Amino acid sequence: MSMKRIYPSILLTAALLLTAVVEIKAQSFDFEADGRHYTLTSPTTVTLEQIDHVGEELTVNATVDYEGHQLTVTAVGGSLIPYTNRSIIRRVILPETIETIGYRTFVTCESLRQINLPKGLRVIGSEAFNGCKQLQIDAWPDSLRTIGDDAFAGCSSLGEVALPERLESIGRCAFNYSGVTAVRLTSRRVKLGDGVFRYCERLKSVVVEGDVLVAVPEEMCWNCQSLETVVFKGCLIQTDSYIACFVGTRAFQSCPALTTLQLPQGVTSIGRNAFEGCSSLESIQLDRLITYIAPEAFLGSGLRQIELPEMLTTLGGACFYDCRQLESLTLPLRIEHLIGIIDGASAVKRLEVKQRVPQNINPWDFYEVYDKVTLVVPAGSRELYAQHEAWGQFKQIEEAEPEVYTFYADISVHGHGRLFWNGRECAGGEHFAVAEGETVSIRQEPLNERDSVIWLNFTDDNYTNVQLHRDSVYTFVVDNDVKLYASFQSMIDSPELVEVVIRQADLGAVVLGIEKGRSLEFTVAPEEGWQVNSITLNGEDITDRLADYQILTTGPVEGNVEIRIAFEQKGADGIGSVGADCRLRVHAVGNVLYIDNAEPGDICVYSLDGKLLRQLQASGPSVRVCMPTNNVYIIKNGKKTIKIGF
Asked: Are the CB atoms for 595 and 565 separated by under 8 Å?
């Protein structure tokens, strides 16, 4: 074997590798062996950067000898194949040692048909196979974590793609203009890049089994003419409390064959032109958390019906223009920003609004439909709308049946004390429904002698600030959504306190204050007929350490503590084999409820008052579902019943 050295001897030690000073050239590699050029990446590993001459078939060796050392080839680099040989190569055989296929490694290898992806492969770099028109992938390794930007763009022969469970991210335009026909993504949690399947003209279905970070990305399936089915089975997961979870701009624009669509749970907004031109899409289920729908979101779609979420506040202009199947539309109570949403080409014949007092709109917003659409307004509001400059131009205005609206209360409690709403203790961060016209009384109960005054800040159209003393009660009538910020104030100097938050089934969350450095003692006393299902202390499962009525004492508390408790009914048959690992177990992380070891069949999630909220199928060892936090839920599976608040 001939070996040509480009640099002086390099000692294979980590320190020397980090400090070596080498000559900078247009193509700089650490050494060459048999026409193959390598760079050192560690004392024992190298990247194969370039091969001088390549035929129709290329085999990459697992190891290479250098200065008496056998080094492992763990990556192939972007200059691997000379541009003059890229049209020749048809087959590549990679060793199982390869973990990374680098940036543009096989770009424009138009004749490349076959390559094995090694079982230890973790990264496919950006543009790695861009333009490989004849490439087919038989198997995707379970080890794969990252697919880079444009990695398979223009790969027009790919066919069906089943991506592995551990995949964490797919880059921007990764399969842009490719020939994928079906995509199944089994990842537990994945980040999708913008335009990931854009212009895939043969793509018919996309199924995402797990959760997606932050967004259904912009232009995800833009102009996929054959796309019929898109199903997200998981949730959109926030990565930051200030980042909304959204369906991106033009996500499914110009997908005329799309008939089946299931969006992930947790969507809070829909971007511009997201479903424009989806002429076969007759219905869509929108998440109740959605507050914003951008302009032209459903322009030219085939919608026959749509139920807008009651928490929606903004509906963008031209949202339902040219919707020729949509005959009726109801605008939710909380709409704040409204401009022209339907035009003369839309089929809407009945437009219902919920606001008793007409909001201001421009007379031009509905000028094309004043003669053809019947405006339906709340009972007793017809005269107000008829006298309005814009709404009054509708030729037909009718009143709906009287209706009692449902408003929502959001409660935030700060400091060391408890707040009671009509005698019911409210936890910080709680969100619950309240009927219009309901009379509400609020009182406070400090947890110590130091905290004796509370300030109630109501955020509404008329900002209200109430000082509520220890023995006083504040009463008001609900006529709007309530955002209540309750702040306990210490009246005297006090030692440093930390919070103990107990989240359990009946009370939701109880916040206590104890002096830092003191030990914490608590017991769990289930109601009759119930027993402990699971207990976690700051995320650690301590179920086996605390039996019913037993006292648990922690060490000195140095920071905030969170205890989560779930209960199950006594006497129900167990599930699975004998052993703690086979018991039905429920716990929550963020807004995701995890149900483990379920019996095959239905899993039903109920509200505390018995209303069925979700019906799931136990198709694996763990079932996940996104649920609004600060509520109490009843989970039933077979003969097992579990109660949890989170």
From this structure: no
Cα dihedral 80, 81, 83, 85, rounded to 10, equals: 170
Tokens (6 digits) for 84: 């003059």
Name the band, by pLDDT with cuts 50, 70 and 90, for residue 370: very high
- Beta 540-541 vs 530-537: how paired, if at all? antiparallel
* Integer Rg of the chain from CA: 31
Q: List the structure tokens of 449.
A: 């002698």
How many C-beta atoms surround the C-beta of residue 81 within 10 A?
Answer: 23
CB half-sphere exposure, 441, CA atoms < 13 A: 7
DSSP state of 403: -
Which residue type sits at 194?
A: D
Starting at the edge strand that comes first in sequence, how are the strands of the sheet with 592-596 ordered?
585-589, 592-596, 622-626
For 555-580, what is each residue's pLDDT tens digit? Answer: 777 778 777 788 877 765 444 333 44
| pLDDT score, position 201 | 97
Considering Cα of 52, then 55, then 58, then 63, what sign does the dihedral take?
negative
One-letter amino acid for residue 117 of the chain: L
Mean pLDDT of the chain: 86
Residue 306 near residue 283 (C-beta atoms within 8 A): yes
> And the tokens for 640?
């097992």
Of 582, 583, 554, nearest in space to 566 by CA: 583
For the chain, the residue count is: 646
Of 319, 223, 199, 225, whose CA–CA distance to 269 is shortest?
319
Angle at 262 between CA 257 and CA 266, to 5 degrees: 140
Question: Which range has the worst mean pLDDT, 25-34, 44-53, 404-413?
Answer: 25-34
DSSP 288: T
Residue 235, Cβ neighbours under 10 Å: how many?
Answer: 23
How many Å separate Cα 192 from the centre of its chain? 11
Are the C-beta atoms of residues 153 and 177 closer than 8 Å to each other?
Answer: yes
Dist CA 646 CA 627 (whole Å) = 9
CA 274/CA 215 separation, integer angstroms = 12
Q: Is 542 helix (H, G, I), strand (E, B) or coil?
A: coil
Rounded Cα gap, residues 382 and 184, in angstroms: 52
Pairing of strands 246-247, 260-262: unpaired
- C-alpha–C-alpha distance, residues 360 and 370, integer Å: 16
Residue type, 615: Q
pLDDT of 187 strictly over 70: yes
DSSP 86-150: TTT--EEE--TT--EE-TTTTTT-TT--EE---TT--EE-TTTTTT-TT-B-S---TT--EE-TT
Burial class (CB in 10 A: 0-12, 13-18, 19+), 8: exposed
566-598 burial: b if 16+ Cβ within 10 Å, else e: bbbbeeeeebeeeeeeebbbbbbeebbbebbbb
User: Cβ distance 415 to 448 under 8 Å?
Assistant: no
Would you tell me how many other CB atoms lie within 10 Å of the CB of residue 348?
19
pLDDT in tens, 495-551: 676 777 676 665 556 666 677 777 777 777 777 777 777 777 777 777 766 655 567
In this structure, how many other beta carbons lie within 10 angstroms of the beta carbon of residue 487?
14
Separation between Cα atoms, residue 288 and residue 122, nearest integer Å: 38
Q: Which residues contact 25 (CB under 8 A, 6 or more apart)?
A: none
* The pairing of beta strand 473-477 with beta strand 439-446: antiparallel
Overall average pLDDT of the 356-363 stretch? 94
Identify any residues that bridge with 146 across adjacent strands, giving them in sequence order: 123, 169
